[in-house]
Amino acid sequence: MQSKLIHTNGIQLHYLDSASDNNDQLEIVLFIHGLTANAHAFDAIIQNGFDHQYRILSVDLRGRGLSEQPDNGYTMLDHAKDIVGMLQQLNIKSIHIVGHSFGGFLGIYLAIYYPTIVKKLLLLDAAVQMHPNTKEMLGPALGRLGKTFDSFDSYINKVKQAPYLSFWDEAMLSYYHADVFHNANGTVTPRSKPEHMMEAVLKGSLGMPWGEIIGLCQKETILINAPGIYHLGAALLPEELAKETVNMLPNAKYQQVNGNHQTMLYGEGAKQIAAMIQSFIK
Q: What's the CA gap between 65 and 39, in Å, rounded?
């Protein structure tokens, strides 16, 4: 995967691209990460069997990873315009979208408001209603933002103590390296800023009437759910709430994989998701 920058919608956007001289005719899969994540969140899935069958794009949304961090502009429309502008400059007419959590909501938004761009949609643990205690359950993940850690090792040690991280996969290392800025004095600071992520929540994922508009998404969709315990003894997206969203979509089906909201992207969950993606977009 090549690391690239592109100017779109007034900002510099960073993305990973598997493009080579001989894959212009391949189907294109765009991976869109979760709220505070980055393009490397899908490394384990991509490494599990795609074998140059597709052109893969994985983007750092604005304010995350190596993408520019404007002071404001974190609505769903802002994020969508970033993606649409990137695709236009790359002369890409249509894509399949794999979106995790916040990225799944953005995928739905694109499928509704830019329908000619989206072919098929794969939602990874993204639903109109998440667990009622989602705010509290996300506390450990969001708590890292705005903090500086003594070293990358101390940061990783803290990460490994998170209640949702039931196992460690070496494929996670690239994601966590991309998650932080390495300061000159050896300390590290998460790149995503709390105020930007709060705007993305309030004006993005929570700022849309999903229950009213989700039925407008006509694309063939799979909602892939990981009902393992995430925090506070529960799944971040319980099976019954995932299926509720599937029933609200005109052309969707439900699939289940191992792991929880975070670990589904690694280990056995990653293998299962990779196989589902390949079967779905044939």
A: 7
Rounded Cα gap, residues 35 and 102, in angstroms: 5
Q: Which pTM was predicted?
A: 0.96
Q: Backbone phi, then psi, for 211, in 5-degree steps?
A: -60, -30
Q: Which residues pair with 181 in a beta bridge?
A: 189
**If you search the block for the tokens 């040690």, which residue do you land on?**
157
Quote the CA–CA distance of 5 and 256 in Å, as a whole number: 34
Give the H/E segment covering residue 189: strand 188-190
Taking residue 239's Cβ as centre, other Cβ atoms within 10 Å add up to 13
Q: 129-136, long-range: CB within 8 Å, 24+ apart, which pairs?
A: 129/241, 129/244, 129/245, 130/236, 130/237, 130/241, 131/234, 131/235, 131/236, 131/237, 131/238, 131/241, 133/232, 133/234, 134/236, 136/231, 136/232
By DSSP bridging, strand 54-59 and strand 95-100 are: unpaired
- What residue has token string 């999903």? 210
The CA-to-CA distance between both ends of the chain, in Å, stands at 22
214 contacts 248 by C-beta, under 8 angstroms: yes
Distance of alpha carbon 175 from alpha carbon 44, whole angstroms: 10
229/76 Cα distance (integer angstroms)? 29
pLDDT tens profile 87-123:
999 999 999 999 999 999 999 999 999 999 999 999 9
Sign of the four-CA dihedral 94, 86, 176, 236: negative
Q: Write the pLDDT tens digit of every residue in 6-28.
A: 999 999 999 999 987 656 688 99
Q: How far apart are CA 114 and CA 110, in angstroms?
A: 5
